[in-house]
Amino acid sequence: MSGLLDREPVVVAAGVDVLADAVAAQAVEVVRVDWRPPEPGTDAQLAAVAGDHRRTDANARAVERMLAATAELVAVRPASAALGLERGQLLHAGPPITWERASGPLRGALVGALLLEDLAPTPEEAERMLAAGDIELEPCHHRGAVGPMAGVVSPSMWVVELRDEVHDGTSWCTLNEGLGKVLRYGAYGPEVIERLRWMNAVLGPALADAVEAHGPVDVRAIISQMVQMGDEGHNRNRAGTLMLLRDLLPDLALSRPSTVVAEVARFIGGNDHFFLNLGMPACKLATAAAHGIPGSTVVTTMARNGTDFGIRVSGTGDSWFTAPANTPEGLFLGAYGPDDANPDIGDSAITETAGIGGFVMATAPAIVRFVGGSVPDALRTTRRMYEITLTENGAFAIPALEFRGAPTGIDVAAVVRTGVLPQINTGMAGRVAGTGQVGAGLVTPPMACFTQALEALDALALG
Amino acid sequence: MSGLLDREPVVVAAGVDVLADAVAAQAVEVVRVDWRPPEPGTDAQLAAVAGDHRRTDANARAVERMLAATAELVAVRPASAALGLERGQLLHAGPPITWERASGPLRGALVGALLLEDLAPTPEEAERMLAAGDIELEPCHHRGAVGPMAGVVSPSMWVVELRDEVHDGTSWCTLNEGLGKVLRYGAYGPEVIERLRWMNAVLGPALADAVEAHGPVDVRAIISQMVQMGDEGHNRNRAGTLMLLRDLLPDLALSRPSTVVAEVARFIGGNDHFFLNLGMPACKLATAAAHGIPGSTVVTTMARNGTDFGIRVSGTGDSWFTAPANTPEGLFLGAYGPDDANPDIGDSAITETAGIGGFVMATAPAIVRFVGGSVPDALRTTRRMYEITLTENGAFAIPALEFRGAPTGIDVAAVVRTGVLPQINTGMAGRVAGTGQVGAGLVTPPMACFTQALEALDALALG
Predict the structure, then answer these.
(1) ipTM score assigned to the predicted complex
(2) How many domains does chain B have?
(3) Minimal Cα distance from A247: which residue of B?
């Protein structure tokens, strides 16, 4: 006890600043803890969920499965065959939505998909069909797939097929088109459709044969490497793309005429984001493995359709908890500005749900710098994510944090209790259909998704 | 002045610990500066060199030229054509040396080169010829080339040719063979010679045509990117290799049958060090641009032949300042240990001379971790290098240090004054000829190289 009196006092203040300020005014050093009370009105729910005797084990099992999931690229196939997608059906990113409530970029991408499928001769006719309800819309997530930005998948598009042999899981994603005027950002001009036709006719089949000749590609191992190489796996996928290209090129060279090999190598090599569409289904496999465990408060989906942000939670089955999506803040391309940006869109927040993307910002300070932040901001962001996650993924180790594992397994209760929201890196789509990409930046989900999920967990909680 | 009395004192102690210890014993915080007196007997020389009226301008010009140098891969050619190397002539790494004084790995590589050139039918006959002085030995640096490890170049080997158009400079380096049992580590078994023959017959000509079809490849731009991707450009060249492969593959695909394309893609893709042999001549171009400026104390060469470490300095012309090479410390492959390691060997310290490699350790903490250090060690190493360098290279920005430029332009006077030696990352060759690689680690040059250089600068100093 005497030690307490012999040395300088250590003062730690949590909560409102007035207490810390008073101590500081007396020339005493004070450590300020950024503590906030839980979201208003959630005390009883938090207590009930915390008291659920299944919770600890259920969450341990959920994150254990999330970390144990593998992800191998095993095939590249048309969505019709891989996903059973039929003519007149389209998949989209985020929670379920109707044409009436769909944002500009999602509408643009749906229109483009009908043009690609020759289901409509003009954009106007496509819009009419969509408005009339002639086309069946369904979230990618409902079929085990994920789609970046608008995330529209039509039957003729080729998709990568990834397998998690440990949990017998399968996930799919389309091939990445590149940046700028592309379908996933809501553009549907002739150059967009022409590129998609080339991808269907040339790129998809070439990759399919290369993957078949190569055998399974360990996508999880590539993610492991890329987070050591400045990629956070959401807004930056440069090293990942290069490693994929390296792995597939020898077999690609042996299966196609040289002009096609050169064309495909240029297309993939010229698009630093190509790997995103493999990282996403790998993350989907990890989160899917953690889904459906009664009593677990682990978030297994975060997805946006451009209008709503939706989450799903391991212990609450297939229910979506949705709220209006925020609009990202960041840097704009060319003459575009904040008024041009659509609210947050895409299934790509599956990366953060699995512990990479914004959660490993510390490994990719170039991203934060790109949107006006600094290296310490990047480290702080990742450190903050440990407050709302249940485990660390040693397979995705962050060099700048002494190779600490990525913060993984978002706990709904921790988000509501701390007020700390998951940090998401994202692209920004133009608000108006047909525009394409207008920028890239940072965004968080609305808190309402988490308070709704907590309410549902409370309703299901056992003593 | 009153401010000085009102606040807590700030105590900074430099030099011997006794002063700092006394203050600390009185419970006063003390910042310890790791200061050491200059090397014994160098005071007058340091004063004379510091007083040389040309020094400031000469050093400014030297580092300005070092930073302004470009490096484009413009051709791949046999050394006979590129370097005018004739039958019976061999180049080697480091300062000049004779067969008698040559270390095991250098001897092994020289023997292997004679077997490759069909100048000797057996290793024994090759040794006899070398011992008899039938073969002319010359440092790579004397012809504007650089060679990793033993650095042996024979006429039939294909070399990359890099150009610095700004200063009309040209530099060359052989193609990287991969790791393990390879000529540059002193191995010369049948598999080594067979690989070299394939490189001469297939790899070199294929890359030559690819580069010609592609046009100049901006090697400096790749280095700029790779230091953002966990590569320090000496012991780690993974991202650099992938980017080179991406840039050349489309044209490679168009110029060769698919089996050759696949073979070359596998060879380069399977060797994370392939880019080292492009980074080295790029660094040579930068340092060569800074060479030969009267009054400049900037180091323009650091190179080792396995026996001696040699440096050259901008203001002292072509003189080498040599001393016995240290033996690296680090991690050993398989059952190898410290007794198996040869002293430091290779021209690859040109990377540190140009400000990358060990100087940007902060960007590649995986390297330090590999040899038993930590992330803070990596940051400290780079920070220490700012103490002995004259400028920072903004083109090689280090993310972990808030994108501070690489510490560039080693000042002989600063090394002698501070006692801080350049940090070099390196591979370790087996001491016995024919062994190959035994490990990788860290090493420093002997201080004697710098004190000798200072002496020469003193002799040339103007008032």
Answers:
(1) 0.90
(2) 3
(3) B269
